[in-house]
Amino acid sequence: MVGYGASIKNRWIRRHGRADRYTFEEQEIGAGGFGKVRRGRDNSLDRCIAAKSLDPILRAFSEAEQERFRREARTLAKLSHPNIPAVYDVNFTPEKFEIIFQFIEGQNLRAIIEGNGPTQVGLARQWFQQIASALEHAHKNGVIHRDIKPENIIITPDMQTAYLVDFGIALSAEEAK
Ligand SMILES: Nc1ncnc2c1ncn2[C@@H]1O[C@H](COP(=O)(O)OP(=O)(O)OP(=O)(O)O)[C@@H](O)[C@H]1O
Ligand SMILES: [Mg+2]
């Protein structure tokens, strides 16, 4: 029976690809005090993703820290806006704690300021309008970001679009009550 099951699994993998839903690049694209962010691939839907994860094997996270992480995913799930990466999925198990997001190609604004120096006024205005629009959408849905800073803004390689990330300490109106 076991052999029969394994052969079905192998045939399935040959036909549909890897059994793992997500594969990740080793190199992190961001690491804060809390989690780390890696680029990866959704093998079922064949698209890039970004995964923010806590590793419970490396460090024991308190119940409050785990709840903060779950809240980040739930907060983002309330939002749908062209300048906020979508949350696609979550994986909360004893071995793994991760949020799967739309991957945004580009660099955060802190890296751009440090690499390129002052930004053209027209471009800065464009990014400011996009982030303000993202915040307006969040506020209409009862979400306050509370951590607006260059590290939490990603600019695409053509420099045309700014995305607001990191709802890690955001508050939603219901939870603030
Ligand atoms: N969806 C994404 N696509 C591409 N890069 C991302 C994405 N989300 C985050 N990043 C990159 O990873 C970095 C860290 O992400 P984020 O700010 O969410 O984590 P953090 O600061 O470690 O979080 P926390 O404050 O919750 O500890 C960002 O500055 C950005 O460069
Ligand atoms: Mg951050």
Topology summary:
Elements: H1 2-16, E1 22-31, E2 36-42, E3 47-54, H2 63-77, E4 87-92, E5 97-102, E6 107-108, H3 109-116, H4 121-140, E7 143-144, E8 153-155, E9 162-164, E10 171-172, H5 173-176
Antiparallel strand pairs: 1-2, 2-3, 3-5, 4-5, 6-8, 7-10, 8-9
The structure holds adenosine-5'-triphosphate and magnesium ion.
Describe this structure in words.
The chain has 177 residues and is of the alpha+beta class. It is 35% helix and 28% strand. The protein contains five helices and ten strands; from the N terminus they run H-E-E-E-H-E-E-E-H-H-E-E-E-E-H. The protein has helices spanning 2-16, 63-77, 109-116, 121-140, 173-176; strands at 22-31, 36-42, 47-54, 87-92, 97-102, 107-108, 143-144, 153-155, 162-164, 171-172. A hairpin with a 4-residue loop joins strand 4 (87-92) and strand 5 (97-102). The radius of gyration is 19 Å and the shape is globular. The relative contact order is 0.14. The structure holds adenosine-5'-triphosphate (ATP) and magnesium ion (MG). Residues 29-35, 37, 50, 52, 85, 101-104, 108, 151-152, 154, 165-166, 168 line the site of adenosine-5'-triphosphate (ATP).
